[in-house]
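Following up on my earlier thread - several people asked me to post the actual chain instead of describing it. Fair enough. Here it is, all 405 residues.
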Amino acid sequence: MFEKREEIDVPKKITNDIFPDDHKYLTFLKKVFRHEFRKNWFRRISTDILENWEFRKNAETWIMSAYLNNECASEIQPVYYYYMDHFFDNNKQIERIWGEVIWVNDPILDAICIYLTYIVLNQIWLKDSFKISINSVWIEKEKMKYSEELQSFYENKKHFLSDKSLWLLESNPMLLLQSEDEDEKIIATQAPSIIKFLKKDSKAHHQKFLEYLNILEIPYEEDHTLVSNNDYSTNSIWKFTWVNWEKIWGGYRYNKLATKLGNAKDIPATWFYNDVCVIINMLKEKNIKLKNKDEIDLFFVQLWDEAKSVVLPLSLEARKAWINTVVALWTPSMKEQILKANRSNSKYVVLVWLMEARNGIFQVKDTISWTQEEVKKEDLIEYIIWKIGSDKLDFYVPTNDLITE
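Reply from S.P.:
Thanks for posting it. Predicted structure:
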């Protein structure tokens, strides 16, 4: 007898497939952010993917853990890190780009974190497509005082609250300000502002934070409903909101995280993140496109082994001459090859049958002017370069970045 096995629940798909059209945007955004990171002394870091899964809702935990476990305090402080990789939020994989600054409790670093995202979004033609909201979430003692004030404020409004909100009112009243319920949103806007209860140090931090934002000429609005659901966040918090969508990205200071992870004392730190897929959707909505660096200049259509033996080395020679070239060597049907050539939007299509392979004279179709010419094999590459223009060739060579000392 076989033992009865328990039924296994197949988990829902948690990955987010990114296809070639979106990957062009993803690569572009990584380049733009990386450029700004480098100019501001940020260096790239990657963390353990298994640890990332465990702390999938608290990405800053990964960086602080790496900082503590690898004795990074011996480096020049503060340290500036940036991270570009998959992120798991509510069991869904998304792409994020974020930066962290560890060791210094200076509000100028909070302002710089906002500036990096602000300047990138402006550079990629998304100015006026988002708004920036800021707030302060204080330190622990001040949070307790404010929570008491909120409980008092909501006391005569309990009949408007859901069961979940009633529970939050007792356990963590500040999170009531994040409610998505329309009635509770209205109530939250009337709640007392946390800014009015700031003590000396927190007030000074917030005022300096505002001063630096003004110096950087960053537009913002103060929003007292903006709070963090993490008990280790302190002082500054902010969010960027797409004006046509409710999706949000932002950051906050988290000076208390190090002790939460077992460190003997607090380590000041601040961080910000960007949901890349949201930015891609913003670009698409505004019909902002990218130059197609994958345009095909030359497409070889060939038939029979003798033609293949001629086309293969010639295609390699064309690539060495910086011509973006494709050969359908694996497609036996001439009809299919021509169909692929048409779909590739190649500028020039070279037809090589058995006779062309033997006599060395090829048929070259110009898909732009819809003309066709005969070109000798030995003249083909120079002919294509002349037609394309030498300034339009693909001269990018990644290995040129290699040096020796």
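The two ends are 71 Å apart (CA to CA). That should answer part of your original question.
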